[in-house]
């Protein structure tokens, strides 16, 4: 049996009623849009809250909170992960969701609008084409780290305003030692199993790279 929205409420007990409603609405919105434009694999849509929403929110568990008006770039957002769940969790934070596939951004915009998320901007553009600076870059395993970092390393604001230095928050699984070594960066690996008890997260991490 696949988890319902209650799994989000259990791990995040301090959600407002508005946030609860927004998270609950995802169960209606994603299947609706996924039938028109495939942004989540058919076999995963039933595991929406576990494999996509809760997974995205691991970044929230690691960080704890962001300062209001923090700017976050979500690269290769696909159907809006991790950006949409994080935007619900952190309504005072500004999120810019980008993807190179235009139809996926259409889904993101429609879902953000249906949820009433005023802190989400979505664009059909590659990260390397952006001229803006952000406090953090988030992403969910879009490519190997060594390829990803050159796309975003000059997009990160130098002045810190949060409890951790500005940088990259990357969701990825498996044995990442070789990939980190190849990328020649100092990365912290935070097991998601420290935050969530489900077996799905046993080999998955929030990778944090201060920039």
**Beta strand count:** 7
Structural class by secondary-structure content: alpha/beta
Ranges where pLDDT stays below 50 over 5 or more residues in a row are none
In DSSP terms (H or I, runs of 4 or more residues), the helix count works out at: 7
Summarize the structure in short:
With 211 residues, the protein is an alpha/beta fold.
Task: Name the features.
211 residues, alpha/beta, 7-stranded mixed beta sheet, 7 strands
Can you tell me about this structure?
The chain has a seven-stranded mixed sheet, with helices on one face. The radius of gyration is 16 Å and the shape is globular. The termini are far apart. Helix 2 (17-34) packs antiparallel against helix 5, helix 3 (48-63) crosses helix 4 (83-89) and helix 6 crosses helix 7 (177-183). The protein is built from seven helices and seven strands; from the N terminus they run H-H-H-E-H-E-H-E-E-H-E-H-E-E. The protein has helices at residues 6-11, 17-34, 48-63, 83-89, 102-115, 145-152, 177-183, and strands at 71-75, 94-99, 120-124, 136-140, 167-173, 188-191, 204-210. With 211 residues, it is of the alpha/beta class.
């Amino acid at each position: 049996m696949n988890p319902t929205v209650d799994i989000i409420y259990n791990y995040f007990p301090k959600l407002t009623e508005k946030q609860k409603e927004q998270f609950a609405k995802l169960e209606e919105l994603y299947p609706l849009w996924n039938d028109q434009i495939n942004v989540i694999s058919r076999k995963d849509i039933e595991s929406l809250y576990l494999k996509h929403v809760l997974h995205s929110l691991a970044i929230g568990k690691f960080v704890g909170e962001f300062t209001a008006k923090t700017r976050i770039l979500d690269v290769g957002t696909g159907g809006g992960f991790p950006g949409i769940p994080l935007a619900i969790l952190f309504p005072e934070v500004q999120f810019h969701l980008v993807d190179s596939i235009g139809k996926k951004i259409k889904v993101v915009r429609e879902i953000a609008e249906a949820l009433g998320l005023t802190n989400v901007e979505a664009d059909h553009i590659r990260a390397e084409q952006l001229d803006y600076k952000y406090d953090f870059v988030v992403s969910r395993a879009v490519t190997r780290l060594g390829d990803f970092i050159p796309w975003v390393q000059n997009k990160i604001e130098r002045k810190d305003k949060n409890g951790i230095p500005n940088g990259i928050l990357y969701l990825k699984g498996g044995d990442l030692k070789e990939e980190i070594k190849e990328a020649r960066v100092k990365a912290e690996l935070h097991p998601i199993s420290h935050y969530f008890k489900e077996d799905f997260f046993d080999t998955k991490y929030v990778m944090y790279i201060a920039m």
